[in-house]
């Protein structure tokens, strides 16, 4: 499906026309895979378009870059400002997905990235539900991947590094070939790590459980959903989840900036709960949308308004 293009992309400090935001085929990251990025969303709120948790996303972008030895030639404040200026320069009638990317550019070949120029872009386009509205309503079918999350001594899962998404992509592809919507990846010890682009939650006997971020991204939505759940009076545990605990959960759902709160109806052919969006997932999904869409004053501090 074609991307809904906007007018401008922020490219190394300048707003350029969407079609002119291009790179050379010998761009280093294209060959050797070292790049870091963010996935951010801006929602239409009663007070206009607002970016959710912009500062946290930018902080994570800088931490990912540090872990991957990429020096971003801007400050966090400049990157935050660039997001706002980009969104102001474009016309949006709906919610927006924002993709900052830091990559190694043109000028050097070979594995070593030392001395390679670093480029930074921010693109933003109108984007609806990651897996479609139907997924948010009725839940998705999930397959546990034959691919495992790399051990912490192989890759750095806490960094939102492009290289990590090869593993995610293969797992997601395998799930789709098997007629499912998304993959769930296990860690090297066999416990649930995360989805290909989401965090995993279960509900058992009224308690909400989600794993620690030992082999997964330090997720901004997971933190938000935990805070919302605790505010609603739920007990939330950060602990390991086994495969059979996932199969026998009363409810399961994914969270993420892109996936928002997506219920899971089936894992490896086992119907989860009633096979429909569960009571807790429904409550958290509604509350999450209220928060990001500026309808809950307690969380308004997380919004950066564009106008
Ligand atoms: C692998 C992976 N895990 C978890 C998440 C959820 O992270 P966040 O809530 O910060 O978007 C994402 C999405 O960004 C992801 O790509």
Largest sheet: 9 strands, mixed
Task: List cofactors, ions and other ligands.
Answer: pyridoxal-5'-phosphate
Q: How many structural domains are formed by the residues?
A: 2
Mean pLDDT equals 97
Q: What is the CA-atom radius of gyration, in angstroms?
A: 19 Å
CATH architecture of the largest domain: Alpha-Beta Barrel
What level of helicity do the residues show? 25-40%
Output the CATH class name of the largest domain: Alpha Beta
Strand proportion: 25-35%
- Helix and strand element order: EEHEEEHHEEHEHEEEEHEHEEEHE
CATH topology of the largest domain: D-amino Acid Aminotransferase, Chain A, domain 2
Distance between the termini: 30 Å
What is the general shape? globular
Number of strands: 17
GO molecular function, one term: L-leucine-2-oxoglutarate transaminase activity
EC number: 2.6.1.42
Protein name: Branched-chain-amino-acid aminotransferase
Keywords: Amino-acid biosynthesis, Aminotransferase, Branched-chain amino acid biosynthesis, Pyridoxal phosphate, Transferase
Structural notes for this entry:
The protein has 307 residues and is α+β, with helices and mostly antiparallel strands. It folds into two domains: 8-126, Aminotransferase class 4, branched-chain amino acid transferase, N-terminal domain (D-amino Acid Aminotransferase, Chain A, domain 1, 2-Layer Sandwich); 133-292, Alpha-Beta Barrel (D-amino Acid Aminotransferase, Chain A, domain 2), CATH 3.20.10. Helix content is 27%, strand content 29%. It has helices at 28-32, 54-67, 76-89, 133-138, 164-177, 220-231, 243-247, 279-292, and strands at 8-11, 14-17, 35-37, 40-45, 48-52, 96-104, 118-126, 140-148, 182-186, 192-195, 199-204, 207-210, 236-238, 251-256, 260-267, 270-271, 303-305. The strands form two sheets. Strands 8, 9, 10, 11, 12, 13, 14, 15 and 16 form a nine-stranded mixed sheet that branches. The radius of gyration is 19 Å and the shape is globular. Pyridoxal-5'-phosphate binds at residues 39, 168, 194, 197-199, 216-217, 219-222, 256-258.
